């Protein structure tokens, strides 16, 4: 390991590390050799370092590190900067600026998987780890400052000066005097994966034996085709599904139906609000020219009458006219229930066999801690004799209970119980977004809840239906589970976005077939708050779901909360003005105030163009 030490006062910290096996030290200070030599024991420490094979450099500016090391000499595995300070009575603003320049400079000489250690006196960092904690404006805001250079805080622990052999802090007000380090903290920063800048993505699907392509909604670009439920995946949602199906196979013969599930759903879903689904405009893979049509070209993919469908809008989509086959409406599947019902209606359905369907589903929703625009659903379908449906439900529940118990042996440090709650016992206001949407799809008999506290989390639903197509003597039982919510509860993952992170440190925590208690690698991420106010178009019902969806899209899911702060109606004109407060925060990436300011500007532009609001 190549270790770089910055801002050494008397080189006592560097001397304590000297001689560590497998470590190559480069110890530096800001002052000249002559200035440092006057400090107590500095000359002795420098001699010890040099005799131990360490490199000692003087007059090194921590904000310009690449000037001191050639490209071949960079790539440090660890950079230490203990108790940085501008000197004398400099205030918090100047010291924030010092840290900002230091982090940018460190990024230029640090190895890709390297660490930056910054020790600060108690209260300076401005994180909840400081006790007592200073007010934010009076701290050095170290996490937010580091985010500007692409770093996240991955660990923080006490700086125990008394355990460091020979260490003596110095430099109080630029003098050879010590200062108090009781309660000091060592902050360990690592590189963040960059914020996504997703380019438009198209998907090809087959509809009615014809290939068509569609543009994936921008908010879903980084979530489509991630393969979390592939057989060799180690993702927690796949581990949950594998354990569930393994336990259920002990009680039922299973048939997997994943391979035949369409990504698009045709038509409107009864009971589901139109604004809660992702509607998809389709375009043929190739549109033949008039000459090609006259020449008898038939290999082009066309929906309906070509002449009536040929025009394109300003975005390049086919303009669909009434009567054209392309006028059929399609949406990204918001649920697998319709696919499960279709299997039952086709009649090729063996009573007593448990049919398993799984895959990602897509729903527009308001921004809340557990509302997901995409999640992985698994649906179990079984036809049983009339009068035995309750026995089937209890068998399903028992198998689920066994699988949850097995999974939490390696994951949860707390007891997790699974229970059924009758739908009639809960009010709509008590349901999470997942459960509320399920109630829109069709009647729900039971909610499946995982309980870690008195409230619990609804992670699934159960339904029964009589189907004359199968047999008048049979009842079909449907059980739907949100695999993402199950994984979050069992692994104590506080934010659904973490399940979709591209940072490899997430999946590294989960060996194949095992769940573990999740350990965050981004601690105390900073929050940024912005307000936006506007006039609503006259006579229009404001589409709040669309408003939230635009916020998700322009911020790459960095908006964690949207609150209505004020609603005002002008007496003279009757115009309505709304004021919302947006809170930006990342769970896995560095997010700076400059990046958030850019997102806010783009958000204002998009809602003006797409929702026709008048900004104030």
From TrEMBL:
SMART domains noted in UniProt = FDX-ACB
Looking at the UniProt record for this protein, which Gene Ontology cellular component terms does it annotate, in alphabetical order?
mitochondrial matrix
| Domain FDX-ACB stretches | 523-616
Query: Which keywords, in A-to-Z order, does the entry hold?
Result: Aminoacyl-tRNA synthetase, ATP-binding, Ligase, Mitochondrion, Nucleotide-binding, Protein biosynthesis, Transit peptide
Question: Biological process GO terms, please?
Answer: rRNA base methylation; translation
Q: What is its EC number?
A: 6.1.1.20
Q: What class of enzyme is it?
A: ligase
Q: Where in the cell is it found?
A: Mitochondrion matrix
Subcellular location, principal: mitochondrion
Give one Pfam family.
Answer: FDX-ACB
Note the coiled coil stretches, chain numbering. none
Glycosyltransferase keyword on record: no
Q: Carries keyword Mitochondrion?
A: yes
The UniProt entry, under InterPro entries, shows:
aa-tRNA-synth_II/BPL/LPL, BMT5-like, Fdx_antiC-bd, Fdx_antiC-bd_sf, SAM-dependent_MTases_sf
Instruction: Cite a single GO MF annotation.
Output: phenylalanine-tRNA ligase activity
Which catalysed reactions does the entry list for this protein?
tRNA(Phe) + L-phenylalanine + ATP = L-phenylalanyl-tRNA(Phe) + AMP + diphosphate + H(+)
Q: Which family does it belong to?
A: Belongs to the class-II aminoacyl-tRNA synthetase family.
**What protein does this entry describe?**
phenylalanine--tRNA ligase
């Amino acid at each position: 390991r190549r270790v770089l030490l910055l801002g050494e006062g008397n080189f006592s910290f560097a001397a304590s590390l000297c001689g560590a096996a497998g470590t190559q030290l480069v110890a530096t200070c800001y002052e000249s050799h002559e200035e440092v030599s006057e400090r107590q024991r500095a000359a002795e420490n420098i001699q010890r370092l040099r005799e131990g094979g360490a490199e000692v450099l003087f007059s090194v500016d921590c904000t310009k590190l690449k000037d001191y090391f050639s490209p071949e000499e960079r790539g440090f595995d660890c950079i230490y900067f203990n108790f940085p300070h501008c000197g004398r009575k400099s205030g918090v603003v100047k010291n924030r600026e010092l840290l900002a320049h230091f982090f940018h400079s460190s990024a230029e000489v640090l190895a890709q998987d390297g660490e930056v250690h910054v020790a600060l006196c108690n209260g300076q960092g401005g994180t909840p780890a400081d006790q007592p904690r200073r007010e934010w404006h009076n701290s050095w805001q170290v996490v937010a400052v580091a985010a500007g250079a692409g770093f996240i805080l991955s660990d923080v622990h006490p700086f125990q000066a008394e355990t460091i052999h020979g260490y003596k802090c110095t430099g109080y007000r630029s003098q050879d005097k010590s200062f108090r380090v009781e309660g000091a903290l060592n902050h360990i920063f690592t590189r963040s994966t960059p914020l996504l800048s997703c380019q438009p993505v198209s998907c090809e699907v087959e509809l009615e034996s014809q290939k068509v392509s569609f543009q994936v909604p921008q908010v879903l670009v980084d979530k489509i085709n991630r393969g979390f439920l592939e057989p060799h995946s180690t993702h927690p949602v796949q581990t949950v599904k594998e354990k569930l199906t393994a336990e259920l196979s002990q009680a039922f013969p299973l048939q997997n139906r994943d391979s035949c599930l369409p990504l698009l759903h045709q038509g409107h879903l009864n009971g589901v609000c139109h604004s809660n689904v992702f509607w998809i405009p389709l375009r043929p893979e190739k549109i033949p020219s008039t000459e090609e049509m006259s020449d008898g070209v038939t290999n082009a993919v066309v929906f309906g009458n070509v002449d009536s469908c040929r025009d394109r809008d300003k975005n390049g989509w086919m303009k669909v006219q009434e009567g054209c086959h392309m006028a059929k409406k399609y949406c990204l599947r918001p649920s697998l229930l319709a696919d499960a019902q279709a299997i039952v209606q086709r009649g090729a359905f063996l009573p007593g066999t448990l049919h398993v369907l799984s895959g990602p589903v897509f729903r527009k929703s308001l921004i809340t801690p557990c509302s997901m625009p995409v999640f992985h659903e698994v649906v179990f379908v079984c036809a049983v004799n009339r009068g035995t449906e309750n026995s089937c439900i209890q068998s399903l529940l028992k198998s689920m209970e066994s699988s949850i118990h097995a999974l939490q042996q390696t994951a949860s440090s707390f007891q997790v119980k699974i229970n059924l709650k009758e739908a009639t016992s809960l009010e709509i206001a008590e349901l999470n977004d997942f459960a509320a949407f399920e109630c829109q799809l069709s009647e729900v008999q039971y909610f499946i809840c995982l309980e870690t506290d008195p409230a619990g989390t609804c992670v699934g639903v159960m339904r029964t239906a009589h189907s004359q197509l199968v047999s008048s003597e049979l009842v079909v039982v449907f059980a739907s589970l949100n695999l993402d919510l199950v994984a979050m509860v069992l692994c104590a993952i506080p934010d659904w976005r973490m399940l979709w992170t591209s940072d490899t440190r997430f999946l590294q925590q989960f060996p194949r077939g095992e769940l573990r208690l999740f350990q965050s690698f981004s601690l105390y991420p900073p929050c940024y708050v912005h307000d936006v106010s506007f006039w609503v178009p006259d006579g229009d019902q404001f589409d709040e779901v669309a408003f939230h969806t635009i916020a998700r899209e322009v911020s790459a899911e960095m908006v964690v909360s949207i609150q209505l702060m004020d609603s005002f109606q002008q007496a003279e004109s009757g115009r309505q003005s709304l004021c919302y407060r947006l809170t930006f925060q990342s769970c896995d990436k560095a997010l700076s105030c400059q990046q958030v300011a850019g997102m806010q500007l783009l958000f204002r532009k998009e809602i003006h163009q797409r929702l026709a609001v008048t900004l104030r």
